Amino acid sequence: MEPQTPQPIFVTSPDGTRIATHTIGSATGEPALLITGGPARGVEYLGDFAGVGEVRPLQVVHPRGTPTTGGLSRGWWNDTADVIAVAEASGLEAFDLVAHSAGTRLALATVAQHPGRIRSLLLVTPPATWLTGAAYDGEELARRRAEPEVAAALASMLGEDPADEDEFQTSWRVEGPAGYAAWTAVERAHAEVGEMHLDASNAWFRDIPSDAAERVLHSELPPTLVIGGREDLLTGFRPVEAYASALGADAVFIDECGHYPWVERPVEFGGVASDWLVR
Residue 110 region, left (φ>0) first, then alpha (ψ -120 to 50), else beta? Predict the structure, then answer.
């Protein structure tokens, strides 16, 4: 069965943009907010997030540029009001924030610009080199892999950026295997879920202050947990390790796991994430 697009409800941000949101799980009580990655990838790729929503409800923020919210991001540094609008629509003054991949940038920007609003952070497989400058070690990780698709994925990642939508779609498909520790039918199926587009991806990185990393690192950060995959070619391993250290965060690295731990290691990921959110 093809994954279904969740039926969203909409929250109005201060500039009048309607931000889509939906809930994962049937747990009761105060929700944690969850920012998706991609950037601006269709939210279906989250699936049931390893059942974490059965322990603590997850209110998913669909960032600008996703198919459900539409439009384009103003840049991840500038979209923090959308996160706050979803929180306030849920009656949350202070809240726990979960974010995956590119969404972790928006999560940290929200902490930096709205002090006191974020009670805790759970950052899943974050892109990390932008924060600390630690060298990417994905090539070293790729050498452990025998699949020819992985070599092709790495070559595409290290090559020229796509110039148009057709090139973007081609490179995204080619680079899919880099997101996983294996390339079986499970990973292949997940890689096809949730559409992305060049204009939305590019918009995510516009108008970012040159001192964004410094402003994050000098913020009063809440208790933070970073979950990484030891075989995540998209982020590398050592950059995520350095990122967690720079944030003063706890870190858990899941073995035989790439960029989507709820897909490849749902039991381990679900246990760690659930424990953090109900501690």
Answer: alpha
Give per-residue pLDDT as tens, 11-65.
999 999 999 999 999 999 999 999 999 999 999 999 999 999 999 999 999 999 9
Q: Are the beta carbons of 72 and 65 closer than 8 angstroms?
A: yes
Q: DSSP assignment of 115-138, as one string?
A: TTSEEEEEEES---HHHH-PPP-H
**DSSP result, 197-228:** -HHHHHHTTTT--TTHHHHHHTS-PPPEEEEE
Angle subtended at Cα 275 by Cα 180 and Cα 58, rounded to the nearest 5 degrees? 75
Nearest to 228 by CA among 135, 100, 46, 142: 100
Give how far Cα 62 sits from Cα of 28, 59, 176, 184, Å. 21, 10, 22, 28
Identify whether the C-beta of residue 45 lies closer than 8 Å to the C-beta of residue 79.
no
- Coil/strand/helix, residue 16: coil
Cα–Cα distance between 188 and 201 in angstroms, integer?
22
Q: Three-state DSSP class for 34?
A: strand
Q: Which residues pair with 32 in a beta bridge?
A: 58
**What is the residue-wise DSSP string for 18-32?**
EEEEEEES---SSPE
